[in-house]
Design brief:
- It contains 9 helices and 9 strands.
- It has one domain.
- The strands form 2 sheets. Strands 2, 3, 4, 5, 6, 7 and 8 form a 7-stranded mixed sheet that branches. Strands 1-9 form a two-stranded antiparallel ribbon.
- A hairpin with a 2-residue loop joins strand 5 and strand 6.
- The chain has 205 residues and is an alpha/beta fold.
Length: 205
């Protein structure tokens, strides 16, 4: 029988597995795991992610998971980036969008691939890992890749973030609204990415 994609509840139980919480495998394998789901389930998956965070903090699991919506983080990055006399590039682009949408689109794509954005994500993760509590910090959940398209593709993010990634410290779970065949992915099951991911596809074996 062929392995099937994990359901969201099966993913939760995977998170409870103590052997999966062990980050030492990050020194042998790439630490990025892809959880794929149908794009039409986006709203429900986003709700489940925050539910997971609460459930996994319970004493029986003792996990402190960092959840990052990549689109929200991009907006925050732009909002904190000055541009000329403007304290916020985000606010500047909002005002300029009606007059010059192409220029705004090009600026968004350029900034989504800027090293400053990846340093921003790394800083968010560093702050989480350094947070003082007794909870285990094994996982970072990344989602919102359907929202940030077309400014940033998942494979582009993973490739550009690799220099900041520390596989021996945490595992990344990427929530991907699309289809996958081996390591070739297509967003929404339609738009094929140009490259494959050096990642592990979460399946129910």
């Amino acid at each position: 029988m062929c392995p099937m994609n994990m359901t969201i509840e099966q993913l939760y139980h995977k998170m409870e597995d103590k052997s999966f919480q062990d980050t030492s495998t990050g020194t042998l394998f790439y630490n990025v795991y892809i959880f794929q789901y149908p794009a039409e389930e986006e709203y429900e998956i986003c709700k489940q992610i925050e539910t997971f965070k609460t459930r996994l903090k319970r004493p029986s699991n003792n996990l402190d998971i960092l959840t990052l919506n990549i689109f929200d983080e991009f907006c925050a990055f732009l909002d904190n980036k000055p541009f000329g006399k403007n304290p916020s590039l985000f606010e500047y682009l909002k005002k300029k969008e009606l007059d010059d949408p192409k220029s705004v689109n090009d600026t968004l794509i350029r900034n989504a691939e800027d090293k400053g954005f990846y340093a921003w994500i790394d800083k968010r993760i560093r702050e989480h890992l350094n947070k003082a509590n007794e909870l285990t910090k094994s996982f970072v959940y990344l989602y919102g890749f359907g929202q940030i398209y077309p400014y940033l593709r998942t494979n582009t993010f993973l490739s550009n973030f690799e220099r900041y990634n520390h596989g021996e410290e945490y595992k990344i779970i990427v929530f991907y609204p699309g289809k996958a065949k081996k390591n070739s992915f297509s967003l929404f099951g339609i738009m094929k990415d140009q490259h494959t991911y050096r990642s592990i596809h979460l399946i129910n074996e």
